[in-house]
Amino acid sequence: MCPPIKHGPLHINPYTTPVRQDHGKRGPRGNDGAKKVKGRKRQILTDTGGRLLKAFVHPANEHDKRGGEALLLGMDLSLWPRVRKLFVDWGYRGLRGLASSLGLELEVVARPYAGVRGVWVREGEEAPELPRERGFKPLPKRWVVERTFAWLGRNRRLAKDYEANPGVSEAWVYLGMLRLLVKRLARAA
Question: What is the pTM of this model?
Answer without folding.
Answer: 0.73
